[in-house]
Amino acid sequence: MAASVDSAAPGTRATPASPTAPVPWVAMYHSVGDCSDDPYRITVTPARLDRQLGWLRRRGLRGVSVAELLAARAEGRGRGLVGLTFDDGYADFVDHALPVLRRHGFGATLFVLPGRLGGDNAWDPLGPRKPLLTADGIREAAAGVEIGSHGLTHVDLTKADDTVLRAETAGSRALLEELAGAPVAGFCYPYGTVDRRAVDAVCAAGYRYACAIDPGPLTGPHALPRLHIGQRDTAVRLHLKYRLHRLRRRPVEGTP
Ligand SMILES: [Zn+2]
């Protein structure tokens, strides 16, 4: 059975999700730019991002980094906050996402790959090559958002040997802290794949939190579930995702 951080008693009627719910609402983005050739559906246009953030703002919600979200919740100030995350560290973040975030007064967390500085998304067999941020680009982004690690090179940690696992977690953190000149608190599992060994490695590397994708038995501060937000997420779909967020994380009880 899947575990859940939802503290509601089994059988309790689900209530609509809210930012004060036990599970924080964390949105997952990747690239922001032209999405005409986008087989993995990882891209939203700047105009779509603008409308989605506007939707949050109209509901009285504010997008923040995951570090800020968790710190606020720990002090009982999480109401109205939504975590915004951008994976992979695409170069378009600085040109297209940062200006939109600034316009809305929102923060975010950008998960980058210090082992692929100035490279591209070579791990995706299909689709267009997208350039990744250089060291200078990451420093530019760091002026506006939280920088977290996505590992060194985008490998599935559940398939990595001990040496690679340590390099991808502890090694990437050390590189990023040197690059950005600031502590790095957050990690994000490539592909969202996570197991106990990967969680232990991330904890041992000193990360205070880590983002996964799907909820599961490891859900917690070092495997935070996130919701994919894409180009097709208009206001209506965002509304549904927002309401279903809590339901999605409830354990399945007594399957007939
Ligand atoms: Zn990724």
UniProtKB/TrEMBL annotation:
Region (Disordered) location: 1-20
Subcellular location field: Secreted
Domain NodB homology as annotated: residue spans: 80-256
UniProt keyword terms in alphabetical order: Signal
Origin: domain of life: Bacteria
Entry annotated with the keyword Signal: yes
Keyword Signal in annotation: yes
InterPro entries: Glyco_hydro/deAcase_b/a-brl (IPR011330), NODB_dom (IPR002509), Polysacch_Deacetylase (IPR051398)
Protein name in UniProt: Polysaccharide deacetylase
